[in-house]
From TrEMBL:
<keyword id="KW-1003">Cell membrane</keyword>
<dbReference type="GO" id="GO:0045217">
    <property type="term" value="P:cell-cell junction maintenance"/>
</dbReference>
<feature type="domain" description="UPAR/Ly6">
    <location>
        <begin position="508"/>
        <end position="581"/>
    </location>
</feature>
<feature type="domain" description="UPAR/Ly6">
    <location>
        <begin position="614"/>
        <end position="684"/>
    </location>
</feature>
<keyword id="KW-1133">Transmembrane helix</keyword>
<feature type="domain" description="UPAR/Ly6">
    <location>
        <begin position="319"/>
        <end position="392"/>
    </location>
</feature>
<keyword id="KW-0325">Glycoprotein</keyword>
<dbReference type="InterPro" id="IPR045860">
    <property type="entry name" value="Snake_toxin-like_sf"/>
</dbReference>
<feature type="domain" description="UPAR/Ly6">
    <location>
        <begin position="705"/>
        <end position="777"/>
    </location>
</feature>
<dbReference type="GO" id="GO:0043315">
    <property type="term" value="P:positive regulation of neutrophil degranulation"/>
</dbReference>
<feature type="signal peptide">
    <location>
        <begin position="1"/>
        <end position="21"/>
    </location>
</feature>
<feature type="domain" description="UPAR/Ly6">
    <location>
        <begin position="423"/>
        <end position="490"/>
    </location>
</feature>
<feature type="transmembrane region" description="Helical">
    <location>
        <begin position="803"/>
        <end position="822"/>
    </location>
</feature>
<feature type="domain" description="UPAR/Ly6">
    <location>
        <begin position="130"/>
        <end position="203"/>
    </location>
</feature>
<dbReference type="InterPro" id="IPR016054">
    <property type="entry name" value="LY6_UPA_recep-like"/>
</dbReference>
<feature type="domain" description="UPAR/Ly6">
    <location>
        <begin position="46"/>
        <end position="112"/>
    </location>
</feature>
<keyword id="KW-0732">Signal</keyword>
Amino acid sequence: MNLAPVLTLLGVSVLLPCIPALSCQSGVIEAVRNASELPLEWKTGQKTCEVGEGCQDLVMLLENGPQISLVIIKDCVKVEDQEPRVTWLRTGPGLSIVSYTSVCRHSDFCNDVSSTEVLGDLPSPTVPGTLRCPLCLSKDGCEDNRQQVCPAGSSHCYNGVLRLRGDQVTTNLRVQGCMTQPDCNLLNGTKAVGTLDMRETCGPQLGPQALDCNSVALDTIRNVSDLHLSWTTGWKTCKAGQGCQETLMLIQNGQEFHMVLTKGCTSDANREPGITRHRTGPGISIVTYVHVCRHKDFCNDLSTTRNLWTPPPDTVLGNVSCPHCLSTRGCEQAAQQVCPADSSHCYDGVLRLRGGGLVSDLKVQGCMSQPGCNLLNGTQTIGAIDVHEDCSFPLVAGALKCQHGTLEITKDVSQLPLQWTASQTTCDVGEGCQDTLMMIENGKQVYLALTKGCTTNKDQKAKVTEHRTGLGLSVTSYTRVCRLGDLCNDLSTTAPLWASAPTTAPGTLRCPLCFSKYECENPPQQVCPAGSMHCYHGVLRLRGGEITSNLRVQGCMSQPGCNLLNGTQKIGAMDVREDCSPPISEMNVGKSTCYKGTMLRLGVGFAKEAVQWSVSTTEVCEPEETCQETLLLVDIGPRTLLIGNKGCTGPEAEDDVGVSIYSSRPGMLVASYSRICSSNLCNDASNSNVLLSRLPRPTVPPPGDLLCPACVEFFGTCSGSTNFVTCPQGTSHCYKGDIVLQGGGVSSTVSLQGCMSSPAKTLLGGSRNIGVFSVKELSEGTKDGLEEEKPLEGGAPASSLTWLLWLVLFLALCLEGFVLSAEPISL
């Protein structure tokens, strides 16, 4: 009995190790020839593929009058079988392009095409017309200004560059010739032929103004015996004017070394290749390589450590012993090592590396020849990487526990002082505990904003600041950052801030009294104390430490102006901003006014650190429409994509706020925040902490044995990505797919590759809407996706297994609409 159909119906996938690996013809040929030489024949080499791979044949021929350009690719591929197919991308008259593609698995060397005859007959020559155009087909340039008489029917002279990108193909083919239409559309919209990506550019921004660069972000710790290392990378197209950069750093500590490598686009000025030896030992040694160039595509082509690192000479051991650690996780059980002679100091610190697609906190313990926290000799920037050195806390102590929570409340002054209790949280290694308390007194009322939690800020002694002492409104704050021990952010009462205000005689001025996170409609009047000369009317916007509030304030002041905080813009963990703009015009009565704008951030660390999300543009909605804001986060580990949108939404929407987690760690994280509200300018979240603060604090699992390509692209495609990462334990397969977003003025496709822990094939679990966005997921293994039940391209176990049998049972996990809330501080 064949169990495969039964297992398939049950949702169980079986990978059988007995399938033999194919052998395929392998090779790449690029040539420009005379059309009179057709048909052309070729021979290529051979290679043995990985289990499950097929054999590819790809032939593409571009005809340009008397010349042809030929591209041939034969190789092993992971994509599904494809019957032989001949496709005419353009048929002339004038320029014409034809391709042949095939993927087979029925026998060894089945990709056996060896002649252009497989393409069929090329277009027959036509009678000459009257148009004359330059003739060029070259990878070098079009310098000789050759002219050709175009065939009848041609009406346009084409001038462009075809960028061909694939395995071992990185060609910029300059094309000038005859066309039947005045467009930059030689490819008729085609973006790929088989595994060959194709794009065309026309006009003044050709050549070096829009470079393609090698692109990778790599962070690894190895044994010195592994040196020297070599690597291959992916690629990306830069913005016009940008150059290619590469930054490599090697830190040797005993028999281990840490290597970080970043390549990509940059706006920095050109910089000749340079090697800097920041520290040469004895003990810890550091060497870096930095290069920025614009002279050609892929000029950032360093591919080995060979020219950077030379083994240090053998040294005599000394009398000093130090802990030894080189880790991106922790140094809780660091072993002791005997230091080389001339070492006199034990180094203990963290190197925080940020930039070029890297976010790494490297814990270092080892031998040094001098005291001090100066491993890099004062260097703060190495190429694309910002470096910060911190020796302010003991690494062996591990992570702190801190009091955690937020509280916002308005009370009567007679109820002071207030007391509270808080929950607890475990911070990341190196983080400290913070206390931030702000109190605003307004007549007989007092507003309190309190936040406790973890922070990366430096230690700060307890500090009380009187921002405004009143007559009338007064503002006082308490801030502290500590690493003295667990739960050191132990403020539990308002007593350090508040003392009974002296009684003042009433004056003659009367002002509205309001303390509210909502609108101040018909506020009561209060008699101001003597000396008050001004009625204050403004909004305090508080952002940070898991607090996002707009506090409407009306009260008495001793001076005019929008200056309740005396210019203060930051209080501890909170950013504060003051706005005294006049109320919305009467012309918009009955219509909501909402903030409007779209935010797109593609970078590193956005799943941990909040980024700004405020906009200044507003729009007046249609009657009965309300305000919305939507924030989508996609984190693949090395890179994070944030897409935010604010604006009006339909009248059928009801007030709501929530966070949804579609795919969780380990592996890729996909989560969203959405809010619908009906008051003016209520969609006012100013940073991504409205989402991040509601996500579970991630743990850092050890690396597993699965390698996956990691890529997230908003404007491009992840096809051909070679930026592989080691997936954490708990992940089971590689994801590859697209998420199509539409709504709120956004229409784009997000291309994704990364590690995945859920046995399901999709990231979104069938969700069709994320806030204002309508979404459609196209992923491998789904009905509408790229493939069905095929191994994912680029996924490979890190170790070679002779026999492999996996049974994966699919679980239906419905996470749509799952809302998390922060634990509050209780009074």
